[in-house]
Design brief:
By secondary structure, the chain is α+β, with helices and mostly antiparallel strands. It is built from twelve helices and 17 strands. The strands form four sheets. Strands 7, 8, 9, 10, 11 and 12 form a six-stranded antiparallel beta sheet that branches. A five-stranded mixed beta sheet has the order 13-15-14-16-17, with helices on both faces. A four-stranded antiparallel beta sheet has the order 1-6-2-3, covered by helices on one side.
């Protein structure tokens, strides 16, 4: 289960982590009233569950309530990488002196929680790991032992923060770990953790939790406004994006690409009951990955309907500024209707997964 930034910040605040003053708005009028309450310049942050919202224009700044109203009116209802903006977090604009990064995540290879901290915050941690790995300090927590405050201070010290911040940053690391454990999370992240004249503040918050543990957290279930079609997404180092409806089907598509000499750029499982909206969101997500040259959409319709898939594909093709070759394998529930929709739109499709994978590799190789 993923929660929005405003929900994660509420959880962090209850856990003792400082967060900016903010209010959630669902209308321009509410955004205007929130800006009046804050009584200073504000940031309007689109509440979506996809990354890169800043680069996609999902964060705006206003220096008065009237401007906040105008920007909220613009943002609400827009699409950020395939997800509709229904809420905005109106938050005090922070005077940032420095930015840091801290997170706690499940490290599947070591089967232990992994704490990462860096003096390079506010950017993709993957970029830091690639370009300046020495700026990230990693610490594996022994899950059967108590994680003590002195250990969190040692982590802060080894990141290279100024001495006067070691205790404060260490305290936030310790509290973030307690939240991670309490809420059965697989990721708890603050990026950036910012230094202001008032101290350290979590300028952003991310909390992803294990669905299988939700029975222990009835309060979190209430955070879901409605059931969501979510998907699993992993970035890889190839150039052919792989999207499938089911983990096994997605992995099979990746195996076929490798068999025919291709290199997957993504693992993206849209799930067994993906909607038209989810298809669009998944396609927009991989299109935003600049390494992707070809998209291999592999759908065997069961609960997922082929006509929903076809309509989602057409929506993205019509609206996307970046045109990427798309190879579709489409069969299953409502396949004749879905294939008819694609045919009338002039979009080719395959029935065989093998043929589609081979075609994707062929197109990618011709582009090199």
């Amino acid at each position: 289960m993923k929660v929005h930034e405003y929900q994660a910040k509420e959880i962090f605040k209850r856990g003792g982590i400082p967060v900016p003053v903010s209010y959630v708005a669902e209308t321009p009028e509410e955004a205007q009233r929130a800006a009046k309450k804050i009584n200073k310049s504000v940031a309007l942050k689109s509440q979506v569950l996809v990354g890169g919202r800043g680069k996609a224009g999902g964060i705006k700044f206003a220096n008065n309530p009237s401007k906040a109203y105008q920007l909220a009116k613009f943002l609400l209802g827009t699409q950020i990488r395939g997800e509709k903006v229904e809420k905005i977090l109106v938050e005090e604009k922070i005077d940032i002196q420095s930015e840091f990064y801290i997170s706690v995540a499940v490290d599947r290879s070591s089967k232990k929680p992994l704490i990462m901290a860096s003096i390079e915050g506010g950017v993709n941690i993957e970029d830091v790991a690639m370009k300046t790995p020495e700026k990230i300090f990693k610490f594996h927590v022994e899950p059967l032992e108590e994680f003590l405050p002195y250990q969190s201070r040692e982590i802060a010290r080894k990141t290279g923060v100024p001495n006067n911040l070691i205790s404060k940053m260490g305290g936030i690391i310790w509290k973030l770990y307690q939240i991670f454990v309490k809420y059965d999370a697989y990721l708890a992240e603050i990026n950036p953790l910012v230094l202001t004249s008032e101290g350290l503040i979590a300028a952003d918050a991310k909390l992803d939790m294990d669905d299988d543990a939700l029975y222990r957290h009835q309060d979190l279930i209430q955070l879901r406004k409605e059931p969501r079609d979510e998907f699993a997404y992993v970035k890889l180092d190839g150039d052919i994006a792989v999207i499938g409806n089911g983990a096994g089907l997605t992995l099979s598509g990746m195996d076929l690409l490798k068999l025919y000499g291709g290199n997957p750029a993504t693992f993206l499982d849209i799930g067994g009951g993906a909607s038209q909206e989810n298809i669009s969101r998944a396609l927009n997500l991989v299109i935003s990955n600049l390494n992707v040259k070809v998209i291999f959409l592999n759908v065997l319709g069961g609960i997922t309907r082929a006509d929903d898939v076809a309509n989602g594909v057409i929506t993205v093709i019509e609206e996307s500024e970046r045109q990427i070759p798309l190879v579709i394998r489409l069969t299953g529930t409502n396949e004749k209707e879905g294939q008819r929709i694609l045919t009338e739109a002039g979009i080719r499709f395959e029935i065989s997964m093998e043929d589609a994978a081979r075609k994707a590799v062929e197109i990618c190789n011709n582009m090199k």
